[in-house]
Automatic annotation (TrEMBL):
Organism of provenance: Vanessa tameamea (Kamehameha butterfly)
Lineage, top ranks: Eukaryota, Metazoa, Ecdysozoa, Arthropoda, Hexapoda
UniProt cross-references to Gene3D superfamilies, sorted A to Z: Phosphoglycerate mutase-like
Signal peptide: 1-19
Sorted UniProt keywords: Disulfide bond, Glycoprotein, Hydrolase, Signal
Name of the molecule in the record: acid phosphatase
One term of GO molecular function: acid phosphatase activity
Amino acid sequence: MFWYLIIAMLQFDLMSSSAITDLTGDREMVMAFVINRHGERTPDADELSLSDQKEKLMNLTYIEGVEGLTNTGKRRAFQIGKFIRQRYGVQGYGLLSDLYLQDEIALRSTDKERTKMTAQMAMAALYPPEVDQQWDEGLGRIWQPVPYTAVPLSEDYLRYYSNCERFNELMKIAKQEAINQEFQQFKDLVTIVKKETGRNFTEDPLLYETLFDLFKSQVSLGLDIPEWAKPLLPKLGEAARLAYRLYFRYDEMKKIGGGVILNDFIEAASDISSGKPVKKRFRMFSAHDFNIGSMMEVTRVIRHEQSNPEYGSLFALELYRSKGSGELTVVPIYLPRAGESTAQLLHFTGCESSCHCSFDKFKEITKDFLLPEKDFYNICNIRTEL
């Protein structure tokens, strides 16, 4: 538990922005796009390759399998759904009904078991069945099925970091630059981790994040981290943070990663602004830390701490309309860890004076990152029927 607390402290500092209170005044919320990271999971194959406790980990995770959602992760996902119900449901800003209504919500997940299960658990918390939707006297009184969309990983813009040729080209350049620049400070660390893991971290600095994720998975499963790593944890945590930042090193990487969702938000908000009917005004993406990071980058959010998004974290773009003037404004919020933290107000670069940024201003400061979905496929050289 002691080392878990250290890891938690390394992963995210207290955010200096104030906790969310009554934002609305004369404003009503008219749309929200929410991107969450899945709950706690078992180690993936890359992480296991760095572990000196492979057998123990495999024994502990034989039910979930590699990179599967754990019971802790399921509880975390349920907390995501509770947060959404409290904030966006009838008891919150009223964007969602207590009943599941298909015209109100669109749910998308990457085609990974941990994100699909996270989506299902979140929906179970969001929509405990009202009487009209209870379908039998047993399970039907406590569980409401909610559909979601998932497309093949090879064609999914949410998985840009694995399927986009152009992004991978840019990552190679980013890694080489970083090896010769910010990762020079970890030369002594490279020698130790190579001895303990058999891998040369100089050749691939992303391994630092892989190793740190392994430790987080181990701790969540009740295993301590290796003795050799304990005194190195602060340095390993900093190296992991820098490795994560490589995914957003260049503007083109940011655009590939978050431009599609941003473009969809702008288009839907523009339709609302012009009075066109817009269905599914709550859109949720059950995804990964890189998706949260890319959205924060393309929306030019100001963050006072630079830790990597934790399991169960959530970022949202909320659209409000003034009841008096009809003006549309955009607000960014961040939930560091569902069930353990309070959602925080953020600000956009260029809109520092208020958490409410006028929609026109928001369009101006983000215009360089817009990426229609069809353009994503062209840039990434992906053939798709989608």
